[in-house]
Design goal:
Blueprint lengths: L8 E4 L4 H9 L5 E2 L17 H11 L8 E12 L2 E3 L5 H11 L3 E11 L4 E12 L4 H11 L13 H6 E5 L2 H5 L3 H8 L3
Parallel strand pairs: 1-2, 1-3
Antiparallel strand pairs: 3-4, 3-5, 5-6, 6-7
Length: about 190
């Protein structure tokens, strides 16, 4: 399906096992070279633009492009009432975030940048996710059992909390996991 990508050495610039798994399941052959820079953005940047900005910033960290390299970078944010919920540093932060998300609708925005030496495509995908009211017992069990410290918003939709706590999603499920696979598929065809 991606025979046209054979001319490229595809590089996924992400340590995320979820992104790696999704790209692999899409049938893309790639290597992993994590981006190393610090993620920073201006507080004046509209929050809905942050994920796309960070994905492009990650691509900017790679400056030594060979003619046959194609980099894919991505960043996912969880946005609740104009507040970005990042990755929790500890159990207390995770509990606070999940308590905020409890019984509410939020947005998951993934920005993606695909870049070769001669071309760049940057896009974002937004999915609305609604949690039912989560009890303190559900929240503490999830944090203790799944340790969601590498996940924006302190949760993985593909894990137990997604199965028992999410009432509704509007948009791409895979976007919430970490890559908007359908849109990415269409954009990769342009290379």
């Amino acid at each position: 399906m991606f025979d046209h990508l054979n001319k490229y050495h595809v590089v996924l610039a992400s340590n995320s096992p979820r992104r790696q798994s999704l790209l692999r399941e899409m049938g893309v052959t790639f290597t992993v070279v994590p981006s190393q820079g610090e993620e920073v953005f201006s507080p004046e940047l509209p929050v809905t633009e942050v994920a796309e900005f960070l994905a492009k910033q990650k691509a900017d960290w790679f400056t030594d492009f060979r003619h046959n390299q194609l980099y894919i970078t991505a960043d996912t944010i969880v946005l609740l009432e104009n507040e970005i919920l990042g990755k929790p540093q500890n159990s207390v932060e995770a509990e606070n975030m999940l308590s905020k998300l409890s019984g509410k609708k939020h947005q998951v925005i993934t920005g993606v940048c695909i870049r070769s030496k001669t071309k760049e495509i940057t896009f974002k995908s937004t999915t609305e996710v609604t949690f039912k009211k989560l009890t303190p017992e559900i929240i503490s069990h999830y944090i203790e059992a799944y340790k969601p410290f590498d996940k924006a918003g302190s949760y993985g939709i593909q894990e137990w909390i997604g199965m028992v706590g999410i009432e509704k999603i509007d948009g791409s499920y895979f976007n919430v996991v970490g890559l908007p696979t359908s849109t990415l598929f269409d954009q990769l065809k342009l290379f």
